[in-house]
């Protein structure tokens, strides 16, 4: 990864999680054709990776019940990755059958969160993922690993940076090509982000790290800036800031892709993404969801007539 | 790269003036007074109380004399007021003000549209205020607007910002607050602008006044802190929209700023819970939701 004179990466890969993480955490469920249209619009913005859906039982996540139809229905643009979540082997096989060529698994740095979320310990969840990762490697399917609660847990509170490093290292050594460190409840600040990354960077190469910041406490861009100042060059975000926080009713969740790109543009960092095109996709999905955008850039641009 | 952060940051609370001035609803004098009194209990050391400007121009600040005379003035807390000219300055001092602020801009067009004169003419006007303030031993804070962009001119050169800041500092302002008036700045432009300004004004005399219209405020403030700035303006509950982008947000929320500074281990002396309670009070009075994400999130947990 080349660094500019400023010490910042020259290029940052944006991983768009709106269609999955975003829509999964919205109150209103959108029909399949709207999801497909959203993803198709996002495919034309220059985004290099778009998280499409989740192959999880519709009993647990009804918003993602149409995972097969969405996977089969979207346009696949060359140069764009379309990862999907696969919490277990069954989901993995289903994903492959539907045409997935990249998958993601979700670990957590908190035992309580793991227990409450997927009803097993961190160790048990990792054993479950091991099956997925083994099968994926056999088929040359890349696997991305997520670590939740990297900067705090809704149940345990503070999370030790060493714990985050430990879980990240497990997932990485099992074969995940990238580890996305998630501030699941958005409580992190540049202070805790720095400490956590310092611990994780001892175990995992910088080029394999991503940050997934939530904006619940308004800290996301400051946290992302801290991460990129430390050399992290992959950032997750959600168009229009889709996806509230299930742990703080009414509060926001994912950071808005538009706001991230605006900041990176201002820093002279290349993302390959067309900001206006993302704002248009954001406008489309917000209209479909009958909600206002969570992106301040989109809000301001709309108000000043820039779009 | 992220260098060392200041150990302490002075938070300048602008909600009662900049905030309320830019809100749609006008609050009655007793509510303003109560707001300022509540803010005085949070540990904030500087609270911008009101503006001694003609009510013809700024009706929301028409009660400036009553507010200034009505608030509890705690020792150790400064209550600066805006004074756009000598007349306003004299009225402010008569009402008990012990610190005043004057507003310049780094953009000619903004100055023309805002106060109908050139930057040079505005500084001549302020010279009168500076002289009178010096004689009365009243400290003067200088604001420079449009430091990272102008709604009319677009891009603003860092050299221009440095030039205006230097003039105001050498005229006698003890501190220069650099304002990203329309919130278009990013950590990139903030860094570039500060590097140039810091050649002309000592960093200890600089403050940043960031607007969150494009969501960039905290990231911009972070960069300013990394460059040694240790005075930051903010508005409780993020009061004050942006007059140039209808419906968009304006001032950065004090709660969100303090949350970040706490997380960085930087001392502010501010009690976040009391601050949030104050934000709740004024939002109820204004019949609006808070613009502070910290306040929004904490309510539900």
TrEMBL record, chain A:
GO terms for biological process: ketone body biosynthetic process; L-leucine catabolic process. GO terms for molecular function: hydroxymethylglutaryl-CoA lyase activity; metal ion binding. Belongs to the HMG-CoA lyase family. Its EC number is 4.1.3.4. It is an enzyme of class 4 (lyase). It holds the Pfam family HMGL-like. This is hydroxymethylglutaryl-CoA lyase. Pathway: Metabolic intermediate metabolism; (S)-3-hydroxy-3-methylglutaryl-CoA degradation; acetoacetate from (S)-3-hydroxy-3-methylglutaryl-CoA: step 1/1.
From TrEMBL, chain B:
Its EC number is 4.1.3.4. Gene3D superfamilies: Aldolase class I. It catalyses: (3S)-3-hydroxy-3-methylglutaryl-CoA = acetoacetate + acetyl-CoA. It is found in: Mitochondrion matrix; Peroxisome. One of its GO terms (biological process) is L-leucine catabolic process. It comes from the Eukaryota. Residues 9-276 form the Pyruvate carboxyltransferase domain. CDD domains: DRE_TIM_HMGL. The keyword Nucleotide-binding does not apply. It is an enzyme of class 4 (lyase). Pathway: Metabolic intermediate metabolism; (S)-3-hydroxy-3-methylglutaryl-CoA degradation; acetoacetate from (S)-3-hydroxy-3-methylglutaryl-CoA: step 1/1. GO terms for cellular component: mitochondrial matrix; peroxisome. Keywords: Acetylation, Disulfide bond, Lipid metabolism, Lyase, Metal-binding, Mitochondrion, Peroxisome. Pfam families: HMGL-like. The keyword DNA-binding does not apply. One of its GO terms (molecular function) is hydroxymethylglutaryl-CoA lyase activity. Belongs to the HMG-CoA lyase family. Mitochondrial 3-hydroxy-3-methylglutaryl-CoA lyase that catalyzes a cation-dependent cleavage of (S)-3-hydroxy-3-methylglutaryl-CoA into acetyl-CoA and acetoacetate, a key step in ketogenesis. Terminal step in leucine catabolism. Ketone bodies (beta-hydroxybutyrate, acetoacetate and acetone) are essential as an alternative source of energy to glucose, as lipid precursors and as regulators of metabolism. Homodimer; disulfide-linked. Can also form homotetramers. This is Hydroxymethylglutaryl-CoA lyase, mitochondrial.
